Amino acid sequence: MTANEISYKIISKVIEIHKTVGPGLLESTYEQALMYELQQNGLKSRKSESNAFYLQKGQTRNRLQTRFISRR
């Protein structure tokens, strides 16, 4: 599965969830629903995590917060 195919699946599920439950819920609710849907569709996913952020000269003091990570 290509990166474009994975992206398409993720975006499709986000739209489907939003159409089903509607607007106005907490972000964590949407995130939990998305994680469930992705796992049900064969995409290994992890919830938010904090990762080191690197520039050319080395690591910065800040960390990058990723919302979720999906892999085939």
Structure report:
The chain has 72 residues and is of the alpha+beta class. The chain has one domain (3-71). Helix content is 46%, strand content 31%. It contains 2 helices and 4 strands. The chain has helices at residues 3-21, 27-40; strands at 44-46, 49-55, 58-66, 69-71. It has a two-stranded antiparallel ribbon with strand order 1-4. Strands 2-3 form a two-stranded antiparallel ribbon. Helix 1 crosses helix 2 (27-40). The radius of gyration is 15 Å and the shape is globular.
Sheet with the most strands, sense and barrel status: 2 strands, antiparallel
Secondary structural class? alpha+beta
Oligomer class: single chain
Q: Give me the number of helical elements.
A: 2
Low-confidence stretches: none
Termini separation (Å)?
7 Å
- Percentage of residues in strands: 25-35%
- Fraction of residues in helices? 40-55%
Please tally the β strands and state the result.
Answer: 4
Task: Please give the domain count.
Answer: 1
Note the run of SSEs as H and E: HHEEEE
Lateral arrangement of strands in the main beta sheet: 1-4
Shape: globular
- State mean pLDDT (0 to 100 scale): 80
Radius of gyration: 15 Å
